[in-house]
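Below sits the subject:

***
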Amino acid sequence: MQIIEAMQKITSHIGNPSKFSKASKLALQLIEAGSVKPETIGQFFGLLEAAMSSPGACNEPSVHADYQALFNAAEGVTECFNEQQKNQFDVWMLHAVVANDLCTDDSFVFSKAVGKIKDAISALPVVTVDDDNDEATALAALAESQSGTTENKAADSNAHAAASNSGEESSDPFGLDDLLEHKPKKSEKAAEALNRQADEEESRRLLRSRREALLKCLEMAARRYRIPWTQTTIDILGRHAYDSVGRFTARQREAVEKLWNSIKEQQIRRKHGKSASGKLDVNAFERLQEKYSHEKISIRRAVGGAGDRRATQWLG
């Protein structure tokens, strides 16, 4: 009981950016003490949910290290999550860990994060017309909620549901349905249908969230492009995202295409612009491509042999 109360108290504070660092350290202590168990996993998941109530907050420089520490530690207790919770946690990891790894000064960590993003993009299903329609519906619902019309619609919906329920109650005034054991109750059928509908909607929501998280990762990576050692990796990531553009929704496809066009513009600038040393400002990949395009290939020797064929296809 004390553990549950402690988690509830942490949950009430962890969503506040000014209190996150202290609250997350208390949550870490619970994980390290082995207090996160199947009987407390519901409260712990609620704690993480409160921490991610505003996904953008986890990328603030003042707290991003604490977010990474918390979610890296939480990864060790995911076996207690159900399937839906695991899927949601994977999306949070993209926000709280992978995206923050893109802000590192360590080239190995940066490349590893980019590799995870590429794998996650490849794992996305190809977008269907229904996915694009779902996105349009979600955006329309968001616009309605912001205009204040959603509450009125919800009230009308509740009134309609109440009327429907009263109609169902009077549809069998003599209770004959209860005597027919082989006939499923209407209420059970309705409950099953609602559960299926809720599961499908949750799956669609998680898929939308995953795509949005990956799009954010792409944008955060692109902002590091001014740093020379990141450019090759970002070039490869941008190309991979562009080649996989069919896995993003209509609005996201436009963003990915703009991102790739921006990367291509930067490549052209580097190829034609002079650096302070007077040499062409190209990255390692492009230097190798340029070098080997002028080398000769021998059938019997390695690059640079006495053959007369140019390696025009190397690295290109």
User: Anything to note?
Assistant: Residues 283-316 form one domain. The chain has 13 helices and two strands. Confidence is low (pLDDT under 50) at residues 166-170, 274-283, 297-316.
